[in-house]
Specification:
By secondary structure, this protein is α+β, with helices and mostly antiparallel strands. It has eleven helices and 13 strands.
């Protein structure tokens, strides 16, 4: 059967019981990330010793009595416990569909997590799963020498040069965190980022103050002037470190101080028992300059996928027909009856 989980203690209890999860799955992150009109919920499927939990953001569809569901910014998707090899998802598939139809949920969209096992087995033949791109990650099961050996030669030279006139410190005061937010937003201005990348102050405050999210903000500081050059925000959860957000002041772009932040975060967790340090992909999941920058740290990549599920095709098509517009020409947008910004990519 499938039940809805909305309270924090039960949500945390379920996550603590599954095989693998990331900070993107947590109750706090869903409440920090939700927009107005979105309701976080965890769908729990139980059969015998098997459990599957799917975190989602439920949204009303304007001018209707229907709903759809989406995922938080980041790498989410289902988590599970006690799935066997060759797991047959038929019963889960049927119960999920019946539940969604009973709640008038027309469609579901979720970004999947390439570091959480069995997601593709769970979602097999439930809608469509499409590869969106690649993410680069550092294998943290290697020793420090092995991790650094995967850096390309040019990066090693650059890091040595950066360290001569730059140092890294961990943000620990409100002024530091505000400095990071300012740098991040200025960086988004510089690259012409979509509005969806401009997170609210409440979003940053929530990440920094949450008791259930292990957040680290690192800053690079210029030795000569004492000015903050760049900042990055990282999370650690379930054996996975995530490079979540970052930015560099325009005046220091040529020095590439953000490279030192990633290297410093890796050093801080060399012997911490982590499995992965995910650096993410390119802008909008493309293999662009941003992705090349991340690949300078590692040869390791994983495929990153998106899950799209039309639960009620008749209702979905009716909504598309009612809301189609000549201004909405992005055929890749899902669900296509929602106009405006495209689905948020992952950096």
């Amino acid at each position: 059967m499938i039940t809805e989980i909305k309270d924090a203690p039960k949500w945390a209890e379920i996550l603590d019981s599954v095989d693998h999860y990331d900070f993107y799955h947590t109750y706090d992150y869903h409440h920090i990330s939700k927009s107005e009109g979105e309701e976080p919920l965890l769908l729990l499927y139980t059969k015998g010793q098997i459990q599957i939990a799917v975190p989602l953001l439920l949204r009303e569809i304007a001018d209707s009595d229907q709903y759809d569901a989406t995922s938080v910014y980041g790498y989410s998707g289902p988590v599970s416990r006690n799935l066997t090899v060759g797991f047959d998802n038929k019963n889960f598939r049927n119960e999920l569909r019946e539940y969604l139809l009973s709640k008038k949920i027309v469609s579901v969209f979720s970004r999947l997590n390439p570091f959480v096992s069995k997601q593709l087995d769970i979602l097999n033949d439930i809608g469509d799963i499409n590869i969106a791109g690649q993410v680069a990650y550092i294998d943290m099961t290697k020793d420090a020498i092995g991790q650094r050996r995967d850096y390309n030669r040019r990066l090693k030279t650059q890091l040595n040069g950066i360290k001569r006139n730059t140092f890294v410190r961990k943000a620990d005061a409100e002024e530091d965190f505000n400095d990071f937010v300012s740098i991040y937003r200025a960086s988004m201005d510089r690259v012409g980022a979509a509005e969806t990348y401009y997170f609210s102050q409440d979003y940053f405050d929530g990440l920094i103050t949450s008791d259930s999210i292990d957040t680290t903000v690192l800053l690079t500081v210029c030795n000569e002037t004492g000015r903050t050059m760049a900042g990055s925000l990282f999370m650690v959860c379930g054996g996975i470190a995530q490079y979540h957000l970052g930015g560099t002041r325009t005046a220091f772009m040529d020095r590439m101080p953000s490279k030192l932040l990633i290297d410093n975060m890796r050093e801080r967790h060399e012997n911490a028992g982590l499995r992965y340090f995910n650096l993410g992909g390119g802008l909008g999941c493309t293999n662009d300059k941003l992705f090349s920058f991340k690949q300078s740290f590692t040869k390791n990549v994983k495929l990153y996928s998106l899950w799209r599920y039309v639960v009620d095709p008749k209702a979905y098509n009716k909504l598309v027909e009612e809301r189609k517009s000549s201004e909405n020409k992005d055929i890749e947008y899902f669900p296509s009856y929602r106009s405006g910004t495209a689905n948020l990519g992952i950096l």
